[in-house]
Amino acid sequence: MISLADMITEQAEPYSSSKGESQQVISSEAIAAIAKHHAQPGSSIEAQALRQKITPLRYLRNQNAIPAQEQILLLESSIAQVGLGGLGGTLLDIFLRTGIGSIKAADGDLFEESNLNRQSLSTQKTLGWEKSRAANQRAYTINPSVSFDARHLFLKPKELPEFLTGADIAIDALGGLETRLALQQAAARVDIPLVTGALAGWTGYVGVILPGQPGPAEIMGRNNAAEEMLGCPAPTVTLIASLMAALTVQLLSGHPSLLAASIFVIDLKSLTFEKISL
């Protein structure tokens, strides 16, 4: 059998940028064929290609912002995300396109028409669907190299540690406040960071909670009145999710967190951004 490295080299093609710079690249189609031949996830093939200084075309526009060694770290990383609604759907889209190698997610909800204003997985076609079903289909169409598993269930507090086990980072994409503290405690129990975010109207916050550190769930309570009264407009949802995704990518890439033991509070009405220590 031809070796993995040799097969990647055979499938590589020359590529010249608009500036005339040349490099070797490999297509998503070639990655999929090699992955099938060697019975490995596509993300593993992409990581190996990068080690051979061959850039997957999918990540060509990542490379000046995410160096090859950091892209490899992302491809070999695993995250566990709780929630596939407003924040969760946008986060999933970003994680898939960025190339995080393994993602598992859970959400027991169904899509309804009121989700259409902000939830990227919610469409006229998916109304009434399980959010996990829409997420599984979306993941395959965006990036089949990612190992993705979405489950249709509302995780109970006692189930959270097992769900998070094996992940490098936990992602809090929950709606409301009811389960956030349990998720924070579960992440600490399995000794992984938690990236969290929430919003109400035009305001929101994001944070990184390292095991043993305080988090916003300890001071926000469990009352969802603010979100219900102020609403969930798409610009706030998208911004908070994007900030959460950036924090996740930084952590997985080996960079220290700039938000440990603190939160970043955003108000899009007044365009204010504040860092608050917890």
TrEMBL record:
Entry's Gene Ontology BP terms: cyclic threonylcarbamoyladenosine biosynthetic process
GO MF annotations in UniProt: tRNA threonylcarbamoyladenosine dehydratase; ubiquitin-like modifier activating enzyme activity
One Pfam family per UniProt: ThiF
Stretch forming the signal peptide: none
Domain THIF-type NAD/FAD binding fold: 61-276
InterPro entries listed in its UniProt record: ThiF/MoeB/HesA, ThiF_NAD_FAD-bd, Ubiquitin-activating_enz
SUPFAM superfamilies: Activating enzymes of the ubiquitin-like proteins (SSF69572)
PANTHER family according to UniProt: TRNA THREONYLCARBAMOYLADENOSINE DEHYDRATASE (PTHR43267:SF1)
Name of this protein: UBA/THIF-type NAD/FAD binding protein
